[in-house]
Write a structure and sequence with these properties.
Helix content: over 70%
Number of helices: 6
Largest sheet: none
Low-confidence stretches: none
Structural class: mainly alpha
Number of domains: 1
Length: 191
């Protein structure tokens, strides 16, 4: 499979992950399934989040392979932090499903790392100029949305809600569509 096909597939994975996230959010809020919870619907909803998070981790892995943040240390650290944060969230989600314990340190630690990593990755991708046009801004769009609508309000005591978390999924779709429409000049992936 050539690089373009792999990148487009990664874009589709991200878009599907975002759709799964949006479905999970729109199940969670109307049925009051926020953690901690129990019951079959709660665990189904949490499993949907697990699928979405796995898709996000795969997406970030593709961005790392593509070297869209450049070859320097800043871009590598930024995307690495973004990926590590989401990987910790994925591990936390798996452990939460097994242990039914949402109070794991992995969630706040992964969340802080992912939020900081997303902002730094957005900056690195924009300045590296490996992607052209609007694709170059996709991770920055995600990061700005996350910081403005979710992270900073949470710092000031305002919990996310169904609308802000649904749009979070849409922000991931922007990244997925950027991958799907990336040109062959932008992807120095190796086989």
């Amino acid at each position: 499979m050539n690089n373009i096909t792999r990148i487009r597939n990664a874009g589709l994975v991200c878009i599907i992950a975002a759709l799964v996230w949006i479905v999970a959010i729109n199940i969670e809020y109307p049925f009051n399934l926020q953690p901690p919870g129990n019951g079959a619907l709660y665990f189904l909803d949490q499993f949907l989040f697990l699928i979405a998070i796995a898709g996000y981790v795969a997406t970030i892995g593709t961005l790392i392979q593509m070297r869209v943040a450049g070859d320097g240390w800043f871009g590598r650290i930024a995307l690495g932090l973004f990926g590590l944060g989401w990987s910790l969230l994925l591990l936390g989600q798996i452990l939460d499903l097994i242990l039914n314990n949402h109070d794991l340190i992995l969630f706040p630690l992964g969340g802080v790392m992912a939020s900081l990593g997303s902002l730094l990755s957005g900056i690195a991708i924009v300045t590296a100029k490996r992607w052209q046009g609007w694709q170059r801004w996709s991770v920055m769009i995600y990061a700005v949305y996350y910081w403005a609508a979710l992270f900073l309000p949470l710092v000031f005591g305002q919990e996310p809600n169904q609308i802000t978390e649904t749009f979070w999924g849409l922000a991931w779709m922007v990244i997925g569509y950027a991958l799907f429409t990336a040109t062959s000049k932008s992807e120095p992936m190796t086989e």
